Amino acid sequence: MDQEEVIIGATKGVAKNTGALLAGNIISKFCSLALLAIAARYLGAAGLGKYTFALSFTALFIVLGDLGLNTLAIREVARDRFLISKYLGNIAILKTILSAIAVGIIFLVITLLNYPLDTTKIVYIIGISVFFTSLSQALRWCFQAFQKMEYEALVNIAEGAIMLVIGLSALYLGKGLIGLAWAYFLTSVIIFVFSFLITVKKFAKPKFEISWNFWKFLIRNSIPIGLTGIFSTIYLNIDTVMLSLMKGTEAVGWYNAGYKLVNFIKFIPTVFVLATFPVISSFFKTSIESFRTVLRKSVQLMFLLALPIAIGITILSSKIIPIIFGEGFLPAVFALQILIWAGALAFLGGIAGNTLIAVNKQTILVNITLAGSLINIILNLILIPRFSYAGAAIAIVIAELAITLLLFLYIYKNLKVNPFSKQILKILLASLLMGGFVWFIKNYNLFLVIISAVSFYFLILIWIKGISKKDLKLIKQICHTR
Question: How much is the CA Rg of the chain, to the nearest whole Å?
Fold first, then answer.
C-alpha cells in the first residue's frame, strides 16, 4: 500500500470519527448553551457569575486527578490494543485516589478563602460532581484509543440532554443556584454509570490490580502530559477566579457569557484533535511523510474554519449576546469580541500541542504551556484591576497567541515540518472579503446573515482556489459521516 492509499484510509477514519464527534458535540454543546442562556435569565449576571466561578474553581484542582493518564493510555493502547484491560484497571484505581485527593483540596481551599455561604456550597457540590466526571473519563479514553468515537458522541449527547432536563427542572421549581449545582451532580453520576456499562460491554472489562512497577511507568510517562493539562487548565480558568476575587461575581457573569460562547465554538478543534491524535501517533511510527501530510492538512483545515468564525463573530457579537443571554448582558459584547480570537488560536494550538504529545515531546509542551500560564497570570494581575473583564479577555488572547507561536516554531525547527500550506494566504483573503460582506449586511436578520456569510465565504474560497477538490471531499466526509 503506497503513501496516498495510507493517507486516504486514515482520512476516512478521521472523517468518520470527526463526523461522529461533531454530531455528538453539536447536540451536547447546544444543550449546554441553552441551559446557560436560560439560567442567565433566571439568575442574572451575579448568579451566573457564581455558577461559572464554581466550575472554573473546581477545574483548577480536579485536573490533578488525571495527570495525563488518559492521553498516555490513548497513545499506548492505540499502538497495542491488547493492553486495554491492564490500562483500564490500573488507571481507574489511580484516578480514584488522585481525584479524591483533588476534591479534598477543593473543599479546603474554598473554605479558607471565606467566600459567601451560597458560593461555598455550590463549589462543594460541583467538587463532588467533578470527582465522578474524572472517573468517567478514566473509562472513556478507550473510545478514542480504538477510534470508536460514536460511543463518545453518544455519551456527550446523553450528558448534555440529561443536564438540560434536570437543570431546567431545578430552575423551574425555583431551586436556583443550589438546584443547578445538584443537577450537575446527578448528571455526573448518571454519566459515570453509563460510561462504565459501555466500556465493559463494548471494549473490555478493567483488570483491577495494583502493579507498582506499572504504576511507576504510568506516572513517570504521564506527568509531563499531566503538567501540560495543569498549566492549560490554569490559563483557561485562572482568569475567572482572579476576576471573581478582584471585581466580584457580576463581572464574572458578563465575562463568562462571552467565554462560554467561545467554548461552544471550540468543540470544533476539540473533536478534530480527538479524532486525529491516534492517527498522527501511528503515522509518526510508521510513515514520517504521511505524518507531515496529515499535520499540514489538519492545520490548513483548522485555519480555514477558525479565521472566518472569528471575524464574523467579532462583527456580529452585538446581535448574538442579546439574543442568547438577554439585554442585561450587553457588557458581554466587548468580552466576546476579544475572546473569540483566543478561540480561533485554540483551533491551531490544539493541533500543534497534540502533535508534540504524539511524537513524545511532552516536556516541550509542558514548558510552552507553563510560559503561557505565567503570561496569563501576570497580565491578569496588571489588566484586571484597570480594565475588569476586558483585561481578563485581553490576557488570555495574548497567552494563547504566545503558546501557539511557540508550538509551531518548535514543530518547524525541530520536527522539520512546515505546517502551513500555500493555501493559507488565499484563506486569509477569502476571510477578509467575507468580513467586509458581513459588515455590509450585519443589520439584517442574524440567521440570514450567517447563512449568507458562510455561502459567500466558500464561494470565494472555491473561486480563488483556496480550497482543493480533495479538501472539499474531506469536509463532505466529515459533514455526512455518521
Answer: 22
Q: How far apart are CA 449 and CA 469, in angstroms?
A: 26
Q: How far is CA 96 from CA 88, 130, 342, in A?
A: 12, 12, 33
Measured at the alpha carbon of residue 251, what is the angle toward residues 245 and 252, in degrees to the nearest 5?
70
What is the spatial distance between Cα 456 and Cα 438, in angstroms, rounded to a whole number?
9
Task: Render pLDDT for 280-315 as a digit per residue (tens, 0 to 9).
Answer: 766 776 667 777 777 888 888 888 999 999 999 999
**Greatest Cα pair distance in the chain:** 65
Task: Give me 92's grid cell.
Answer: 481507574
**pLDDT tens digit sequence for 343-369:** 999 888 888 888 887 787 878 888 888
pLDDT in tens, 323-339: 999 888 999 999 999 99
Residue 93's identity, in one-letter code, is I
Q: Which three cell numbers stand for residue 446?
A: 442574524
Q: How far apart are CA 102 and CA 61, in angstroms?
A: 6
d(CA 86, CA 176): 43
| The model's pTM | 0.79
DSSP state of 444: S
482 vs 477: CA distance, rounded Å: 9
Question: Grid coordinates representing 389?
Answer: 473583564
CA distance linking residue 43 with residue 253, whole number of Å: 10
Place of cell 479524591: 100
DSSP code per residue over 221-267: HHHHHHHHHHHHHHHHHHHHHHHHHHH-HHHHHHHHHHHHHHHHHTH
Q: Please answer whether residues 376 and 384 qualify as being in contact, where contact means their C-beta atoms are separated by less than 8 angstroms.
A: no
Average the pLDDT over 160-174 and give the result.
94
Distance CA 433, CA 323 (A): 26
Amino acid letter, 157: I
Q: Are 318 and 241 in contact (CB under 8 A)?
A: no
What are the tens digits of pLDDT across the range 10-62? 455 555 555 666 677 788 888 988 999 999 999 999 999 999 999 999 988 88
Q: How far apart are CA 73 and CA 284, in angstroms?
A: 17
Among residues 52, 449, 113, the alpha carbon closest in space to that of 250 is found at 52
Delimit the domains of the chain by residue range. 3-421
User: Which of 337, 356, 333 has its CA nearest to residue 412?
Assistant: 356
pLDDT at 301: 85
Distance CA 405, CA 11 (A): 27
Average pLDDT, the chain: 84
